[in-house]
Amino acid sequence: MAHTIFMPAFFTVLTVVSLTVLLALWRSARTMPKAEEIRWHADFHDLPAADRVCRHVITGEFRSRECPNAFDCGRCETHARMPKPASDGDGEIYGMEFPLDRFYHRGHTWARREADGTVTVGLDELGKRLIGAPDAVDLPAPGVRVHANGTAFRVKRREADVRVLSPVDGEVVATGGPRDEWYLRVRPVNDNFTHLLRDAEVRPWVMREIERLQLALTAEGAPASLADGGVPVADIAASYPKTDWDAVCGEMFLQP
Amino acid sequence: MDKFLIARGLKRCSTARFAAWILPWIALLGFGLVAAGLCLIKGLNQTNMDNRFAFGLWIFLDLTVIALGAGAFFTGFLLYILKLHELRAVINSAVIIGFTAYSGAVAVLAIDVGQPLRAWFTFWYPNVHSMLTEVTFCITCYLTVLAIEYVPIVLKNRKLKEVPSLLVFEFQLHKVMYVLAGVGTFLSFFHQGSLGGLYGVLRGRPFAFREGLFIWPSTFFLFILSAAAVGPSFVLLTTWLVEKISKKRLVRTEVLQLLGRISGLLLAVYVLAKTLDTLIWINRTSPSAGFPAAQFYGWKPFGVWILFAEIVLFGLLPAIALLTPKLRARRGLLVAAAALACCGVTLNRFVQTVQTLALPTLPFDKFLSYTPSWQEVGTFLAVVAYGVLVYSFSFRYLNLFPEERELKLEPAAPQEEEEMAYAGR
């Protein structure tokens, strides 16, 4: 009697555990091509709650809401119901230029549609000031496929080694660099820019990013302090030689 | 030097300071391994156990660490099955506590059994009528589950997650974690129970023998309840200790409060069940075996005080403190209550193991005393050192507390404000 209950129960448990691990392995093999997408989902899950907020919280339309779609607003029913942002206003914020002829990714890249159907990708002004003069840039070769929220290119500055996130899906057709004001030219696989910020959304987002930057630069355990009203300098990294720049860049470029 | 391995945004002490912290523990582990090696090579004559006192320090250690490590299965159950998402803040730490507790217990059992090369016999020729077989099977299975649960935490290491195949495997493994949490709960439920049942079925030991339901003596259920009750307390206590040692805020006060509340609730149920069980044993079970219960408490130092300490001092008092919002809201009392609860389960496992065997049961029998040999103590200390080392390395190189990065930027609320904020919960 005991044999008939105990041993099957034991082997059932072993089977369930083994099948669970095998299932994970099988799914891993099947989803390997989507590694970049998975990396973003894993990173998004690990972001602090304050960094996962919905874009409509940033604009003040909602008081609090966590993005349930890892910033893929194309899948969001709530976003589809919201009014489109107004296109007025200028692009200067805290002494930095954020031209409104382009779309902005929350990882501090921008995407601009070009007349020939390609999309130019670059670092926004705050991203540029965070990196300053990069020590090294690792750009993908033309022909490489980049994924929205996946790695567009890598930048090194001091101890920081950052994966800059791509705002669009597409194939790289040309590469620039820090001197060109743009980094990649991409032939997009679709014309969907819904997930990117634009027009009137840009100002409140940048203001929030400045707050995040101030927090990231605040020494651990520092007392609450008042903002001094200044504007970000051209090379922020050089102004904070003792700060853990890897941590600051990780925070600002959405890499936990 | 090893900064590239430390999670981004987390501050850890210098490599030299970390080395200074782990060196004494490595020395202790080394000493323990020598002691354990002697037991394995020369045999169990290196211990002070004998045929009459067959359970000693090691079994006490096993029972205690397995009860304290129950935080892993119970926190997993609360998070993945009951969806208490607040506990995400401590689940990684709970898994590592569970893993070190169970792996340490299995290692000591392998030495205690004395023939590690024949360890597979228990699986190939199982005595299905023995509670110990169930314990062996469940502990082995659950250790496997804990090792699998540990894998995603390791794969989240900063360098390892750069490897796409490891990142994808971690992601997919995490998605099926609720299955492993369910299996872990099932296994823990049974082996915690079987460990208790092991004593409850000892008819020849009226101090431990208990009546019960169907084939399970009451100790089966008491062990499950007590382990589930102190598991969250031990997670709370460990978190507080790591906060103190590392001088960092690792989890929000609400999470510690929640752990305390869960622990308090289960502890209250346990105290009630234990009291009823003791009353039934005093008034029925023990007299029917020919032993007035008071007789068991006439042997010094195992007086009635030990029963009082187990039920009231380490049971009722912490349960009240953990269930009273105003008391729970005070960090010092919360931690003290959790520590008392952990002491309670430690004392209970000590009583079950040592007092049971020390008491005479036959007219010509004597009250026995047992002092562990240095080899036994060394092996015991090796498990402690192993646990501290695994946890220390995990804390340094893995992200054990997901809220740590956020909390370092938040100013700590004054104690009074926290108390006011949570007094009503």
Note down, in words, how this protein is organized.
The complex is a heterodimer of chains A (256) and B (425). Chain A contains eight helices and eleven strands. In chain A, the strands form three sheets. Chain A has a six-stranded antiparallel sheet with strand order 3-4-5-11-10-7. Chain A is globular, with a radius of gyration of 22 Å. Chain A has helices at residues 2-31, 35-46, 55-58, 77-81, 125-131, 202-217, 236-239, 245-252; strands spanning 92-93, 96-97, 103-105, 109-113, 119-123, 136-138, 145-146, 151-157, 160-165, 170-175, 184-188. With 425 residues, chain B is an all-alpha fold. Chain B has a single domain (3-422), classed as Up-down Bundle (Formate dehydrogenase/DMSO reductase fold), CATH 1.20.1630.10. Helices cover 70% and strands 1% of the residues of chain B. Chain B is built from 16 helices and two strands. Chain A binds chain B through residues 2-3, 6-7, 10, 13-14, 16-17, 20-21, 23-25, 27-28, 31-32, 34-35, 38-39, 41-42, 46, 48-50, 159, 215-216, 218, 220-221, 223-224, 244, 246-247, 250-251, 255-256, and chain B through 3, 8-9, 11, 126, 128-129, 133-134, 137, 141, 144-145, 148, 156, 161, 164-165, 167-173, 175-176, 179-180, 183, 186-187, 399, 402, 405-406, 408-409, 411.
Keywords:
heterodimer; A: 256 residues; alpha+beta; OB fold (Dihydrolipoamide Acetyltransferase, E2P); 6-stranded antiparallel β-sheet; 3-stranded antiparallel β-sheet; 8 helices; 34% helix; B: 425 residues; mainly alpha; Formate dehydrogenase/DMSO reductase fold; two-stranded antiparallel sheet; 16 helices; 2 strands; 70% helix; 1% strand; globular
